[in-house]
Amino acid sequence: MKYLVFDSKKEASKEAYKILKSLINENSTLGLATGGSPIALYEEMISDYKAGNFSYKNVKSYNLDEYVGISYDHPESYHKFMEINLFNHIDIEKANTHVPDAGNSDLSAALKAYQEQLNNAEIDVQILGVGSNGHIGFNEPGTPFEKGVHVVDLKQETIEANSRFFNNDINLVPKQAVTMGIKDIMRAKHIILLAFGEAKQHAIKRLVEGDEITENIPCTVLKNHPSVYVLVDKEADFK
Ligand code: F6R
């Protein structure tokens, strides 16, 4: 695991983009995350694309998760998030992008379909954020590492953290999501995890320090992965 600390989110995200670019080519498959952590990285991807340095025409993408219970037109759905923050600004083909179909009335069929898609994909680089409780994707503490795509009941701390995207009203935050499993995340060839702000310090400490791997702090599973880059700002650094 490579652990890199930067003065700011911007600097960390610039370096994350350099690392990403060294690991992919224009035919690669990306695993993508939503939330605050990857936004500055997506800005780097967009500006390099606009400068004519990289094309996403043949790139495929798979997102980690999607809320259950809000429409894809909702500005905070992860379908919409990806359009607003990345897909609308690069030349990726819509048909090559995949976000869990959590709005499907037959949810178990949708889970099965996403699992099959993931099983047939080879993700070159998975972008991750991390929850203050250590979740990756929406694999909350206690999730068995062997689980694949599933529906999750979001923990209270996740609902509270994400209320900042919903007018700070926890009642507006969906209570469930569909997520890739830890097993699916671990299949990626490389992983780039971004964490910013003091609230992430504890999870980062558990991820970077010592040998403990526990389902109670899901991100610790990454200690078992052969190629992980963890980039943080100094507020998320634990030293
Ligand atoms: C998002 C995701 C989550 C977030 C995590 C951190 O697709 O899977 O694990 O990465 O909740 O969220 P932010 O980046 O908003 O602090």
Overview of this protein structure:
It is built from seven helices and ten strands. The strands form two sheets. The chain has a seven-stranded parallel β-sheet, with helices on one face. Strands 4-8-7 form a three-stranded antiparallel β-sheet, with no helix packed on it. The model has no long low-confidence stretch (mean pLDDT 98). β2 (29-32), α2 (39-50) and β3 (60-63) form a beta-alpha-beta unit. The chain has 239 residues and is α/β, with parallel strands linked by helices. Fructose -6-phosphate binds next to loops. The site of fructose -6-phosphate (F6R) has 14 residues, from loops.
Structure keywords:
seven-stranded parallel β-sheet, three-stranded antiparallel β-sheet, 239 residues, alpha/beta, binds fructose -6-phosphate
